[in-house]
Design a protein that fits this description.
The complex is a heterodimer.
Chain A: E1 18-21, H1 27-36, E2 41-46, H2 70-75, E3 80-83, H3 89-101, E4 104-107, H4 113-116, H5 121-127, E5 132-137, H6 152-159, H7 184-202, E6 206-211, H8 212-217, H9 221-230, E7 247-251, E8 261-265, H10 269-278, H11 293-298, H12 300-311, H13 316-325, E9 330-332, H14 336-341, H15 343-347, E10 351-354, E11 362-365, E12 369-371, H16 388-395, H17 400-408
Parallel strand pairs in A: 1-2, 1-4, 2-3, 4-5, 5-6
Antiparallel strand pairs in A: 7-8, 8-9, 10-11
Helix pairs in contact in A: 1-7
Chain B: E1 16-20, H1 25-35, E2 39-44, H2 68-73, E3 78-81, H3 87-98, E4 102-105, H4 111-114, H5 119-125, E5 130-135, H6 150-156, H7 159-163, H8 178-201, E6 206-210, H9 211-231, E7 248-253, E8 256-261, H10 265-274, H11 290-293, H12 297-310, H13 313-322, E9 328-329, H14 333-338, H15 340-345, E10 348-353, E11 357-362, E12 366-368, H16 386-393, H17 398-406
Helix pairs in contact in B: 1-8, 6-9, 8-9
Classes of the chains: A alpha/beta, B alpha/beta.
């Protein structure tokens, strides 16, 4: 094993909080990323025998290898990495020791896994009643679908999101990205921090059972309420709004391979007046029926054609300037190039450059909010098992002999 | 009098929040914290939060006290009214903020500064105050004063362009007010981090949330930007397939659509069983990881048609799940809400409203211990707690309150 790697000190807002992170792939580890970049000590438990999904995921710097993934680096900056073989009894005992040292245990294994190792909440709480444990799963730890296999990609369909992404005249398009993986972790952060508040006041811990499915449901509440209140099943509307028009994305001048687009949302009367000013050259805009919101919504198809004949004569940037000057909500429909070059996003430091021994300098995404006094710090991600000696000897206070024995037994794999 | 039930869980007991929120972002953020036990006082303009006219309304009949979105977003809060365009209104808010932990707001860009309610003024009044501000493009930077909207934030994040839609049609968005709900969850999490920071620093701070950034970073950041930057890949809206392998697509079946996904070997083997072990699927060339099946995509999807055309989506869902294939039916809202799993999880909370009567609302997506959360208090009617707060807490007498009302301050 390499010499003890001591990580640099980070005095962030969550300094002093200790997390044992058994999370794997994306949904689990994203929650603890938010904690790590704000100063919590997050120990990620890995093993060389079964690599975390993101360690084997592209993009890689050069040849694919377990320490060369920029994907892993983006999800796990600033965390310590230890390797423990949980198939060995001594490995489980070590993991238990790590849990009892921690304030928070994070896991998103399939149902029953932690229990098999006697690392379930009830097992740990017996010895440490103040422990906070977050267990994330697709559909929750209880109920008839608990234990159903699933991945983020399909969850969108189950939740009902896929049903209403698309156009009314076509089949559902769905969402080509497992973005449900990126929703649940925020609820994970909220529930962990709230549980720690409670623990600080009362000394009592908590088991949090987080369902990715339910977390995602919270993103489509309007459709959910329309059903519970009116029994109405909302369906695909493209970019349309039931209460406002124009409302959508429109083609502009440009030569990008996938088109250049602007998004426009005229949400109220003052904005409509401003919109008419900007599009004064389009005589059709003054038609009587477009002068009320209802008239615009009902005539949306014709109105959209009119809008697009205007937007197609301008680049997105020009059109945005002209519309915003009149107080109309409009913005460029961004693509990947924009995210990299966009002055706003770059101003806010959306991407932070991080150096890494294997990957070299590369960009890691910053949390999407900024705290003025105690900002996040994006540390480098760990080589696999890089901090095993540091965590075991410095943090868990194992003796040199204990450490060597575990090494010889092949537990620190 | 609306009946109240004590919540068994008050993780955030003792934390006091004042919310000046419109529509979704700030109100949902403070709701998440109210549901965990924080005390939230919602300050509305005299005409009320615009979401009171947002609906859905029962029988599509608008009423500022019955908008389902308003009553959902603002349960477990007290409500007062204040005219922040008037100096006395601004002054009353500043008095309230002296004795609170968090100010959560999503005003229009520039409004708070114009009303002498900027962060620098508020932090002088109360150095312990955490001020969380949600704006379409954040508080600073080249776009910060642009007028926004949920659709705009969505598309500014590149989510539509990169991922949603067909290659030859316009970029799409997800339904509802996704961007705002997503930013709200960010805001609640960030607020809790700032509150924790206060234990170390003894001071409050400003928390800056940009709705467009929340989406861009949260959903796209790692996949898109890393790929683009490292490998120079260009964007292609993939339509309804994931293009990472086969099968990974939404496909029509007998009575609707299903999303079939089988990346690993064992998933493919399970899918073959779920399909009833048709001969074509037993071919060795199809076994293995879904990237290896990519060259045979058209063929495989074609051969699957027979099974799909003859099988209903619920049966497909079930047989896939039984064979450990992470595939699912595409459900509409009725199907989602009527399923027993969510009901048994206690996802829906019973709510009772003085005008619309009984209904149900989504509960928190996390279960804390074995206790289910409850709605302690229905959303406030407009100005419902004006007397309790302005007289009870700030010490105004009732005739002063009446004066404020006459003058249009509350």
């Amino acid at each position: 094993m390499a010499s003890t790697t001591k990580p640099p000190k980070h005095q962030g807002p969550l300094a002093g909080i200790k997390v044992a992170d058994f999370g794997w792939a994306v949904a689990g580890p994203l929650a603890t990323k938010m904690l790590a970049v704000h100063g919590a000590t997050v120990v990620k438990v890995e093993t060389n025998n079964r690599l975390d999904g993101t360690r084997v995921g592209p993009p890689f710097r050069g040849k694919p290898s377990r320490n060369a993934s920029a994907y892993y680096s983006d999800i796990n900056p600033g965390k310590l990495s230890v390797t423990i073989d949980l198939n060995k009894a001594a490995g489980v005992a070590l993991a238990r020791r790590l849990c009892l040292w921690s304030d928070v245990v994070n896991e998103n294994f399939s149902a029953g896994t932690m229990a098999r190792w006697r690392l379930a909440y009830k097992d740990l709480a017996k010895d440490k009643p103040s422990i906070v444990m977050l267990s994330s799963s697709m559909q929750g730890a209880t109920g008839p679908h608990a234990g159903h296999p699933g991945i983020g990609a399909t969850l969108g369909a189950l939740v009902g999101i896929n049903h209403f992404v698309g156009w009314p005249d076509a089949e559902p398009v769905g969402v080509a990205r497992p973005y449900t993986d990126t929703i649940a972790p925020w609820f994970g952060v909220i529930s962990i921090l709230a549980a720690l508040e409670h623990r600080d006041r009362t000394g009592k811990g908590q088991h949090i059972d987080l369902s990715q499915y339910e977390a995602t449901m919270h993103m489509i509440t309007p459709a959910l309420l329309d059903y519970t209140v009116n029994g109405r099943v909302q369906s695909r509307v493209g970019n349309l709004s039931p209460v406002a028009a124009p409302h959508g994305s429109y083609s502009c001048l440009g030569d990008s391979p996938q088109g250049d687009w602007i998004a426009i949302a005229v949400d109220n009367e003052p904005q409509w007046l401003g919109f008419k000013q900007a599009l004064a050259s389009e005589s059709g805009i003054h038609a009587d029926r477009f002068q009320t919101a209802l008239g615009r919504v009902n005539g949306a198809t014709e109105l959209n054609a009119l809008v697009e004949s205007w937007t197609s004569r301008h680049t997105p940037e020009e059109a945005v300037d002209l519309l915003q000057a009149q107080g109309v909500p409009a913005a460029i429909v961004a693509n990947g190039r924009h995210l990299h070059t966009d002055p706003q996003l770059n101003y806010l430091g959306f991407l932070t450059e991080v150096d890494h021994p294997r990957i070299g300098p590369h960009h890691v995404t910053h949390p999407s909010f900024h705290l003025s006094e105690t900002p996040a710090e994006i540390g480098k991600s760990a080589l696999i098992g890089e901090h095993t000696p540091y965590v075991l000897k410095d943090l868990l206070e194992l003796s040199d002999t204990e450490f060597e024995e575990l090494e010889t037994q092949g537990v620190l794999q | 009098m609306i009946p109240t039930t004590l919540s068994p869980h008050s993780l955030l007991d003792g934390i006091r929040i004042i919310e000046y929120g419109r529509n979704i972002a700030a109100p949902f953020a403070s709701k998440l914290l109210a549901d965990l036990g924080a005390e939230v006082i919602k300050v509305e303009p005299v005409a009320g939060d615009p979401s009171r006219s947002l609906g859905p309304f029962q029988d599509d009949s608008p009423n500022p006290e019955t908008s389902a979105q308003f009553t959902y977003l603002n349960s477990n809060k007290r409500g007062v009214t204040l005219n922040l365009d008037r100096r006395s209104g601004q002054s009353l808010l500043r008095s309230l903020l002296q004795e609170t932990d968090v100010f959560l707001e999503n005003a229009e860009p520039g409004d708070m500064e114009a009303r002498d309610l900027s962060y620098s003024i508020l932090s002088e009044i109360n150095p312990h105050l955490v001020v969380t501000s949600v704006r379409p493009f954040g508080l600073t930077g080249p776009y910060h004063d642009l007028v926004g909207s949920d659709l705009i934030s969505w598309h500014a994040s590149a989510l539509g362009h990169r991922y949603l839609g067909e290659p030859n049609r316009e970029p799409l968005r997800s339904g509802g007010y996704f961007a705002s709900y997503y930013a709200a969850v960010n805001a609640a999490a960030a607020t809790l981090i700032a509150l924790h920071a206060r234990k170390l620093t003894g001071r409050g701070q400003r928390v800056d949330i940009s709705v467009a950034d929340a989406l861009a970073v949260g959903i796209l950041g790692y996949g898109l930007v890393g790929l683009y930057h490292e490998l120079g890949l260009s964007n292609r809206r993939p339509g309804n397939t994931q293009r990472l392998g086969v099968p990974a697509a939404m496909l029509p079946c007998r009575d609707g659509y299903v999303f079939i996904f089988a990346s690993e070997s064992y998933m493919w083997d399970g899918l073959v069983k779920a399909m009833g072990e048709p001969e074509w699927a037993q071919s060795e060339i199809f076994r293995g990881h879904y990237r290896d099946r990519s060259p045979y995509g058209a063929e495989i999807y074609n051969m699957m048609r027979d099974w799909l055309n003859h099988t209903g989506k619920d049966d497909i869902f079930q047989s896939c799940q039984e064979n450990r294939v992470p595939s699912t039916a595409v459900y509409n809202m009725r199907e989602v809400l009527e399923n027993t799993h969510l009901r048994e999880r206690g996802f829906f909370l019973a709510s009772s409203h003085p005008i619309t009567g009984k209904s149900r609302q989504p509960g928190a997506p996390y279960k804390l211990g074995s206790t289910l959360s409850t709605i302690r208090q229905a959303a406030p009617t407009l100005g419902q707690h004006n007397e309790e707060i302005f007289c009870g807490r700030l010490g105004l007498d009732t005739s002063a309150l009446a004066g404020l009302r006459r003058a249009g301050i509350i």
